[in-house]
Amino acid sequence: MNISFEAQKTLKRITDELDLSHLKPKQKSSFINGIEQGFEPLFTQLFPLYGERYDLHFHLRTLFQAFADFSTKRRPAKIKENDPNWFKSNKNVGIAVYVDQIADDLQSLIDKVPYFKELGVNYVHLMPLYLAPEGNSDGGYAISDYRTVAPNLGTNKDLKELAAALHKNGIRMVLDFVFNHTSDEHKWAVEAQNGDQTYQDYYYLMNGHEANEYNQTVREIFPQIRRGSFTYLPKLDQHVWTTFNSFQWDLNYKNPAVFVAVVEEMLHLILNGCDVLRLDALAFVWKEKWTVCENLPKAHNLIKAFKACLDIAAPEVVFKSEAIVHPDEVNKYIGSDECTLSYNPLTMALLWESLATRKTPLLYSSMERSFSIPQDTAWINYIRCHDDIGWLWDDEVSGRIGVDGFDHRLFLNQFYTGKFEGSFAAGVPFQENPTTGDCRVCGTLASLAGVESAVESGNDLLLDHALQRVKLLNGINFSLPGIPLLYQGDDLGVLNDSSYLQDPNKKDDSRWVQRKKLTASDFSAAEDETTPQGKIAKLIRGMIQVRQENLIFAAEDFELIHLNSEHLFGFIRKSGDQRLLTIANFSEHPIFLDGPLSRYLHCEQAKDLLTNQVIHLNDLTVIEPLNVHWLVS
């Protein structure tokens, strides 16, 4: 079949059927031009999914009428800087926040815009802020209405005003696009529960026998919440697919009506002024029996179809991938036709692995295989986030350096939850599997790096080591290619918050340990440079300033360098004749170099951007404990 010919034939039929009478001549011309350019990429991805559906034409017509209607809607004023490759700039620094944890609501968050600007942030990710069930809503990731802001946070008008305030200050706004599932209180789910067959086909409803067949091959994501991936509905005598919590119903994208309906919700998110959409749980969106139902080929068709819709309706908006899966699978979602940006969970996890072991071979081996991505894309590099840490490296890679993946993960879980003798960390376990003993780890940056336990012990040396770990992690994160992303409170050095244990809606979800409500005292402590919080805040502000003042941090040429010690980690970034060498020591002992660093920088002296000192490279023979250098030629 000639897919290009079929696409053009289908487009003409659809265009002839659309009602464009409400479009002004300029709007109509722009709309027609957009769909003529964008239809074939969309049709190419939708045909493998829905080509055998008799009603595909109807759904395409509905979709393109939605595009036409969207083209007449007003959005908040856009950010002035309109470089399509903005994500390559060294000016980029992001932060992820819960609206009601860093402020009270959307209006009071506007008052935090000066703080973001002073910190140097120009990319603010707002964690889910839409209507969700009372009580436990998986941190807002169980959405009951994509078009209504949670009443305690404000209104759509408030969100648009926040977007305008951010854009006025050169800050991009990021929203979550939770498209794998809805809450069981969403109107589609309510109608399904009431027996409406149209909406029952929006989800995966099946009998117990079929559910058990699927459960034989899919993994359990929240084993402490519910075994298997289904929830029984007594009212319907059916099981519904719930990958995560029982109140989060997975959407059935085998139904093209679901695709069209969710695109319409996506367009509404864009109307609120976002510049980036984070695709939540995208690895799970396509299901097929007798598979693991993750990272399936048609999941990529689906996401590329969403991207084609985005390119038609709002080409200035980009997707960010949240694929917390095997490293080889993470990289498959990254591309100009899929996700322009992607979280970098592998490097995040292996930085913590290197801190625990004081060794870097697994970090090196994994980055050599998985760090390279297409030029027109970028990593979102982070140390901590709202979620847990999962140890996601490739066991084939670890096996080649003599590390047993299963045993090593057990060690790391024990180390970071304080069960390993001599551990500096004060993390807590998340979703421990009673069958396998596996779990993930939660905690703030400062607590996991040892600040909390050092403060409790009153040991100044341990505290110095902990603060050095914070510096080391940020020193690498801020100097890697990509956009560095802070998590709320880590810029202030906050410690774990165990108050969630007193809340019946949160006590069973240990991720709340790092979702502290930030108070005036937290910001005040960060202004006092005699406190650990103040030292961390000063450190991070200084690194951001240096990064934004030096174009070398935008260099695309990246090379890992192998040094003489398994405790050292280093890489070079190059732009023309200028070079940046980042070198770090993950151990608490000085490590002697086996030769001058001039061989990497091609000069005899360099400036350390972190200390602002000029260093004669022949004299730099030792990397001090837990130290990091940013050396420029």
From TrEMBL:
Gene3D superfamilies: 1.10.1740.10, Glycosidases, Golgi alpha-mannosidase II, Oligo-1,6-glucosidase, Domain 2. Signal peptide: none annotated. It comes from the Bacteria. Residues 96-522 form the Glycosyl hydrolase family 13 catalytic domain. It holds the Pfam family Alpha-amylase. This is Amylosucrase. One of its GO terms (biological process) is carbohydrate metabolic process. CDD domains: AmyAc_Amylosucrase. GO terms for molecular function: amylosucrase activity.
